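Before the break, one more example. Copy the sequence into your notebook; we will annotate it together after we see the structure.
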Amino acid sequence: MSARMTTVRKARLRLRLILGAIAIALAVLALTTLQGGGGASRQVCAYTAQKISGLKQFSGLAQRDISCALVFNDTAADWRSWERPWFLSSDNPDEDWARWATRSGKNRTLVISQSLFPKNVGGDWLGAGARGDFAPHAKALARNLVQAGLGDSVIRLAAEANGTWQPYSLGASPQQQDLWRRFWRRTAIAIRSVPGAHFRFDWCVNTAIRPIPLSNFYPGDDVVDIVGVDVYDFSPGPGTAAWLSSYNASDGPGEVARFARAHHKPLSIPEWGLSAKAPANDPGFVDGLAKFVRNNDVAYQSYFFAHDSAAQLLRGQRALRAYREHFGPGGDSSGT
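Here is what the structure looks like once it is written out:
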């Protein structure tokens, strides 16, 4: 073998090793993007009534820095405000979530609850969306988010559609549900097509509302990154029993977890909390949810720190201690 051929083979081997190392690094980066680069699953998030000051208050209660926030853009009245969410240009520093998320030196994640269309859209929105008529608006939304530095956010698209309270809620027939599924797909594909878009899409249902088979409106593995389930402690009984009741309910955490595993997707719990209907100061529901997080592949969980759920945590010291134990500094379900 000539010296020249030996040199060429060595160069090719070095190139293969370098490309292999790059591939591994990219895979690790993809797995840790949602977790802020730390590699830990089960990221701790919170919804704090759209206020940054509320997130600071919640961080104090949790005794840890909360670097993941949930915000909503599901009440836009027209396409203009739908395409450019309020938190991109708010005059109120307490609502300037774009600045919060992109602040230099901070690893922060914004989870955006995004509707499929603004409230003033009438007519056959389901057929129009399934055809892709609204795709240009979805691309405009993506461009605005990317331009604001939020191109790596989580988009919780059309959450809780198995409920009945949203303009984009599912219809009753399998045909309507299939159109809805196609609409969701069209929107996600349009958003992803924009340069600089590295969003992760969370397909999320609500526990025990309508027992619609998840497969009827699941958009597909190629467009869904995370499978989510919202769950609240609405039972008047003890928290442990309430958790088990919710866990075993239709479209509850148990069923959704099995569905996510079958599709090789991580879970999320974008909304959870204690309600005024539940026994005050009962840590059982918190314990049950924390065990679920610990025993499953959960990308993130977000406490709904507003209204009754905030009041219950503020006045329930045992429940708050349980939250800190599981999700505070060094908690066994915190991902730290």
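The chain has two domains: 1-32, 39-327. The first helix runs from residue 3 to 32. Try to locate both features in your own notes.
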